[in-house]
Amino acid sequence: MPKRIKTPISEADARALKAGETIYMDGIVFTGRDEVHIHALEYLEKGKKIPVDFKGAALFHCGPIMKKVEEKWVAVAAGPTTSSRMNSLEPGFIEKFRPGAIIGKGGMSQPTVDAMKEFGCVYLAFTGGAAVLAAKGIKSVEGVEWFELGMPEAIWILNCDNFGPLTVAIDAHGNSLFADVNVKVKENEKKARAKLGLS
User: Fold this and answer.
1) CATH classification of 3-195 is 3.20.130.10, yes or no?
2) Active-site entry in 37, 39, 61, 173
3) What phi and psi, each to the nearest 5 degrees, are found at residue 184?
4) Longest CA–CA separation in the chain, Å
5) Kind of pairing, strands 122-125 and 155-170?
6) Is 8 within 8 Å of 57 (Cβ atoms)?
7) If we measure between CA atoms, which residue out of 88, 76, 83 comes closest to residue 103?
8) How many CA atoms lie within 13 A of 107 on its CB side?
9) Which residue, among 178, 160, 182, has the nearest Cα to 168 in the 3D structure?
10) What's the whole-number mean pLDDT along residues 19-37?
């Protein structure tokens, strides 16, 4: 049975989620890709205040397509960005800002897995190519920050309802579905080579 979780996500709630579980999310979700990570870390270094509070937040690796209807922004498509783009930035971001969840596709590096385990954060995988489905889970766009970075790189503040399905692909205990798959692939390759008489 899928779980429903609400943002902000406490460390206890993040640690209660297990790899392989399916969840749906309610509440505020922030988008943030490379530039948001870089800017936030630079702001912190310079002692400048960032415009949103990432503590316990769900950070969505997403460059959404938005359109303005009268005075309001509406999400047309909001598919996940490949998270590996943020591999060099994410461990530091998790340590400094303590988000409760990262949403994306494709998994992340071992240093990020280690940071999630240390600080209580989970990685939630959203299916690639399902940008319109993702947009359906966005009830409203509450605002935008750092719009000067461009539409896909800004922080979009999304009010979500039943957003998902999301798979807990990396939990806060160091378990990773991606690592499990890699182990199985290597085992199968080894068996196949043995059958063929290859070393």
Assistant:
1) yes
2) 37
3) -65, -40
4) 68
5) antiparallel
6) yes
7) 83
8) 17
9) 178
10) 97
Which is nearest to 62 in space by CA: 144, 148, 146, 151?
A: 151
| Residue 11 CA to its chain's centroid (Å) | 16
Which stretch of 2-16, 49-63, 165-179 has the lowest confidence by average pLDDT? 165-179
Confidence of residue 182 (pLDDT cuts 50, 70, 90): very low
Contact 4, 24 (CB under 8 A): yes
- Cis geometry, peptide bond prior to residue 8 (ω within 30 degrees of 0): yes
Residue 132: its pLDDT value, please? 75
* Whether residue 37 lies in the annotated active site: yes
Residue 188 pLDDT exceeds 60: no
Please enumerate in sequence order all residues whose Cβ is within 8 A of that of 142, keeping only pairs 6 or more positions apart, or say none. Answer: 28, 157, 158, 159
Spell out the domain ranges in the chain: 3-195
Q: In the chain, count H helices and then E strands.
A: 6, 9
Predicted confidence (pLDDT) per residue in 158-179, tens digit: 999 999 999 999 999 999 996 6
